[in-house]
Amino acid sequence: MEWITMNAHVQFDNSNLAVRAIIMTKQDESKEAKQTPMFTPEYWEKEVVPSLSRLSMRTVERARLVLVEGNGPTAAGRIAGASRADVHNAVLRVKKHLEEHMGMEEVTVWLPKDEAAKVRAMAEKYKGN
Fold it and tell me: Sorted alphabetically, which keywords does the UniProt record give (predicted)?
């Protein structure tokens, strides 16, 4: 749910009163921000999924909605019929598996632009569009 504030004018006893109203409304699903996918669909299917055999298919599919398709946990939960927390936990389980069994590590770092271009080029084969 998202809170929005609106100004409204109400007619009362022949005088205009300005009334400030707070209205609760559902957030429009089409406005939900997409995240940057971490893996291309091809890399996910060829390299990642085969190594996730110890995890349930439900966990793998929930994580895919976020890590490959770029949905946020709330939108992914809506798609999968799961809670946001269930999706978040699925992503954490997959990331833990990637670190422990595939020797991968998620890295976030600020670099000079020329160095960042080199790192982006290296990461291109792993990340989504």
Answer: Transcription, Transcription regulation
